[in-house]
Each structure stands twice: as structure tokens, then as C-alpha cells.
């Protein structure tokens, strides 16, 4: 991540550092080496990053970073504060977007009742065609994502520090975030508000699996499982097709600027592909090639799939994600009737 020198709240002298210049006279002059610069707090940096990835985690990391800075004297207090503020801004923006989304009239998928005839219809033989499975309801959405233990079974590198965080009817906002090519934030993050706010979506549920331990999180990664509810199967599939088309325009070098240009993260995005085990799962893989210390080389794997009136929107980030994104998506698909 790069930061400009002028007006940069993250630059300047370390907190508590004695100012440069001549020392007060107190006897013969003593030449001493300048104190080493204080180390930047990792939690503060991660708070700023996760504010744009998963705002609740960004807020938690920011508070943990402030406590650590107070104890160790590391640099990064301003960065942690900005991460906390942005996290709460994004949470509020997401809730506001969902309020607008919720009050929109839902598309009607009712069918006209057949006219009642005065004559008795002829008897028909039973058909072998089974009735279509019932559509998924809003109340059923929380039952679709895998539990913490189920995710751990598919990602055995996740240890006991990992927890699951559930959110209902919240999308991931993007104030202050821009990408080159444009509109490619959904290629990196699940539940992007710019994709779903004006869609036919009726409800959403998300389960994020992360660890508060920074070293563990950088090594083992995390998951966001998101399911979106639509009025019918056609609407869910149309949204999946639209996302796949958007992804096609994000292949290659992708630059993301954070906090209105204060920080930059660069990715190399692989071509859009299909999961080997299930061709209905669309995959997009990206590698971070320039970012905060400890995050270079992180793999970001996106997966989407539509079944019945549900769209699955998933992201896994890890140094070694393997087939976890495909495996988790396939397990969620198996829970959807149809």
C-alpha cells in the first residue's frame, strides 16, 4: 500500500518521538544515535483494509489496534481511528441501502387463477412430470450457509481462534473505493452494494468466518458466504449472468484505491472459469501483488452460482485457498431444493 507524503495522516514523526534539532545544554555535548522509528501497528493497517472488505471485522481490528498501540507505543493510531470510522460509515451506508432496497415493490411472480368452468373436466391420467420444488423463503436463508464447524472441515487450516459472524439484510458499501478498470470491486468482494441495490433481490444473509488473530488471519485467511433471495429462478440466474459478465471486464491487472486515494492495492486477476466439479459454479481468482506487508501473495477466490430463486455469492481469501471456495459453494447448492 502506498501513501502520499503531503497531508498524509499516516506519515510524519512517530508518536512520542523526541523532536530533531539541538539538544538542551547539560554539560559536554553527547552524540547519540537517533531513536529507531516505531513500528507501524499491523492491526491498524488491517483495520483500514477490512473496512472496505468486511466492515464489522474492520471495526473490531481497529479497536484491537488502538489497545495494542496504547500498550506498545507503536505508530498507527490515526490509521486505526480511520479504519474504525470508515467501518462504521460503511455499515450505516449498507443499512441505508437495504432500507431503500426493502421498500421497493417486489416484482410480482403470481399467476392468474384458471377460470372455473361449469362443466366437469375430463379425467386425466397421472403424469410423470414432478411438480417444481418450492421456492426458498426469506426465513430459510440462514439455513443455507455452512456453519463454522462445517467450514473448518473444508478448510482444516482454520484453528480455534476463528468465529462466525452473521448479518441479515446488509450489503458491503464502497464509499471512497475506486478500481481500475472501473466497477470491478465486485470482482474482489461479495455482496457489493453497487451490484444488488437496484436488482430484483428481496433479501440477503451473510456469514463471515474470520480470526481476530492477525498472524493467523494472514496465514489461513477467511470466508464470506452470502446468499441472495430473488422472486424466481429466472431472476437469480439473470443476476449470476450479469456478475459473470462484469467479471470478464476485470481480468488482468486490477488496481484498487482505498480511502479516497490514500492507499493502493494491486491484483492480478485470472480469467473467469468454471469449477471442475460443478460447471454451474463460476469462479474468479485474483492474487494480491502489491499491498500492506504480510498481504502480498494473498489469493482472493470468488464464486457465484444460482439455483432455484437463490444466488450464492462467496469469497475466500488465503495464502493457499485450494478448492475451498468451490467446495463451500457446492455444499450450499446441495441445501437448496431443486
Automatic annotation (TrEMBL):
Keyword entries, A-Z: Membrane, Transmembrane, Transmembrane helix
Domain PknH-like extracellular: 136-335
Transmembrane domains' residue ranges: 43-69, 81-103
Organism: Mycolicibacterium mageritense (Mycobacterium mageritense)
Ranges for domain DUF4190: 46-96
Name the UniProt record assigns to this protein: DUF4190 domain-containing protein
Region Disordered: start-end pairs: 108-133
Superkingdom of origin organism: Bacteria
Amino acid at each position: 500500500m502506498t501513501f502520499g507524503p503531503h497531508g498524509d495522516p499516516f506519515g510524519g514523526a512517530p508518536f512520542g518521538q523526541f523532536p530533531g534539532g539541538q539538544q538542551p545544554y547539560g554539560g559536554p555535548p553527547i552524540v547519540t544515535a537517533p531513536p529507531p522509528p516505531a513500528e507501524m501497528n499491523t492491526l491498524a493497517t488491517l483495520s483500514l483494509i477490512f473496512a472496505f472488505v468486511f466492515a464489522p471485522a474492520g471495526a473490531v481490528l481497529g479497536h484491537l489496534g488502538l489497545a495494542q498501540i496504547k500498550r506498545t507505543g507503536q505508530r498507527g493510531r490515526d490509521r486505526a481511528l480511520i479504519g474504525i470510522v470508515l467501518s462504521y460509515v460503511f455499515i450505516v451506508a449498507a443499512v441505508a441501502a437495504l432500507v431503500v432496497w426493502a421498500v421497493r415493490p417486489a416484482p410480482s411472480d403470481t399467476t392468474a387463477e384458471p377460470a372455473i368452468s361449469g362443466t366437469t373436466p375430463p379425467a386425466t391420467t397421472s403424469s410423470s412430470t414432478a411438480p417444481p420444488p418450492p421456492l426458498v423463503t426469506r426465513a430459510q436463508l440462514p439455513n443455507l450457509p455452512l456453519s463454522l464447524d462445517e467450514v473448518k472441515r473444508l478448510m482444516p487450516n482454520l484453528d480455534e481462534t476463528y468465529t462466525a459472524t452473521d448479518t441479515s439484510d446488509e450489503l458491503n458499501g464502497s464509499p471512497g473505493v475506486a478500481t481500475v478498470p472501473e466497477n470491478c470491486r465486485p470482482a474482489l468482494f461479495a455482496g457489493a452494494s453497487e451490484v444488488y441495490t437496484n436488482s430484483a433481490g428481496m433479501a440477503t444473509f451473510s456469514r463471515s468466518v474470520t480470526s481476530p488473530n492477525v498472524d493467523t488471519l494472514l496465514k489461513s485467511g477467511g470466508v464470506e458466504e452470502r446468499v441472495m433471495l430473488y422472486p424466481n429462478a429466472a431472476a437469480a440466474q439473470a443476476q449470476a449472468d450479469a456478475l459473470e459478465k462484469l467479471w470478464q471486464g476485470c481480468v488482468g491487472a486490477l488496481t484498487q484505491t482505498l480511502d479516497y486515494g490514500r492507499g493502493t492495492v494491486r491484483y492480478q486477476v485470472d480469467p473467469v472459469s468454471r469449477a471442475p466439479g460443478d460447471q454451474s459454479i463460476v469462479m474468479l481468482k485474483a492474487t494480491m501483488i502489491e499491498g500492506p506487508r504480510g498481504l502480498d501473495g494473498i489469493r482472493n477466490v470468488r464464486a457465484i452460482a444460482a439455483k432455484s430463486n437463490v444466488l450464492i455469492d462467496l469469497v475466500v481469501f488465503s495464502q493457499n485457498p485450494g478448492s475451498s471456495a468451490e467446495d463451500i459453494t457446492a455444499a450450499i447448492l446441495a441445501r437448496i431444493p431443486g
